[in-house]
Amino acid sequence: MKSIVLKDIRYKYPLAKEYALKDINVAFETNKFYGIIGPNGSGKSSLCSLIKGLIPDFYLGDLEGTVEIDDIPIGQWDKNKLCTKVGYIFQNPFTQISGIRDSVLEEIVLGLENQGLSKDEMIERALHVARLIDIYDIIDKNPNELSGGQRQRVAFASILAMDTDIYVIDEPTSQLDPEGTENVFKIIRSLKEQKKTVILVEHKIDLMAEYADEILVMSGGQIIRRGPTQDILSDYRLMGQKIAVPQTAVFGRDMKNAGKPLSEIPITMELQSAV
Ligand SMILES: Nc1ncnc2c1ncn2[C@@H]1O[C@H](COP(=O)(O)OP(=O)(O)OP(=O)(O)O)[C@@H](O)[C@H]1O
Ligand SMILES: [Mg+2]
Predict the structure, then answer these.
(1) pLDDT (mean) for 20-24
(2) How far apart, in Å, are the Cα atoms of 93 and each of 143, 170, 191, 200?
């Protein structure tokens, strides 16, 4: 079943000369995990903003084409309903934190206020995700006094608490140390297990190899390639387009160059041992 359909998308930010998104025709299916990769400025975050309706509502600019969520044009969605349908974790956690609440707990509860839950239920849910995402010890802190990494985790917790069908996650670990990254990836793994529809932008390609069903490659505002994760990430030619491929694929290329090609280019350590 199609979850998100983008048709003939072209988009230019206000006053920009270049289109940030061009000729995008793509459908995302329900219950699948998509990875988006591509160099800086290639349009990954813009694509996320489009799916959340922030383009054009918040960013304005010139948008052509249509975005449909569950077959309904995004403009026709009730704004509150859309919030509980699509969870968006911003690349920059400083943008995401509301700054209007006095504690992390209240910040997480904020997103739950239109969902018709009782106060106890909201708090229970907020505490549950706080434990999951390892921010329980800062639950009483003022969100404005958090580090970038703490903010990133609070932002993630706020969205997780809403238990949306679709998760659009833009570089969720950019501010995190290895332990924080591992923790967030555990949560992402659980989203996959729950069969949520996930669109994840991430530069940590080895992690992407482990989770994504399909990879979309962006460049210059376009989706230049799309396919099963194995096909895309084993293609070391992508390195020529400023796109990282897994270390294992580089190893596969080196073996080929050394005259000992592998029957299949591995993209994760698990696969490597199977070859
Ligand atoms: N708010 C904005 N106003 C004007 N132009 C913007 C804005 N945000 C992004 N752009 C431009 O749109 C293009 C795509 O940017 P976008 O942030 O979507 O790229 P990205 O792939 O997410 O990059 P990164 O890997 O650095 O996060 C870039 O040329 C960028 O300069
Ligand atoms: Mg970005």
Answers:
(1) 97
(2) 11, 10, 20, 16
Q: Are 251 and 206 in contact (CB under 8 A)?
A: no
Residues contacting 47, CB < 8 A, separation 6+: 21, 24, 36, 218
Taking residues 4-24, report their average pLDDT: 97
Sole residue written with tokens 């020529």: 240
The string of pLDDT tens digits covering residues 35-51 is 999 999 999 999 999 99
- Domain range 2-244, CATH class: alpha beta
Q: Which residues line ligand 1 (CB under 6 A)?
A: 13, 16, 20, 38, 40-46, 59, 91
pLDDT tens-place string over residues 179-203? 888 888 888 988 999 999 999 999 8
Name the 3-class secondary structure at 64.
Answer: strand
Among 12, 40, 168, the mutation site with the greatest number of ligand 1 atoms within 8 A of its Cβ is 40
Which pLDDT belongs to residue 269? 66
Instruction: Quote the ligand 1 centre to 194 CA distance (angstroms).
Output: 31
Contact 221, 41 (CB under 8 A): no
Report which protein residue has its CA nearest ligand 1's atom 31.
41
What percentage of residues in the chain have a pLDDT greater than 90?
Answer: 57
Domain ranges of the chain: 2-244, 245-275
In one letter, which amino acid is 249?
A: A
pTM: 0.90
CA distances to 106, 109, 122 from 118, in Å: 14, 11, 6
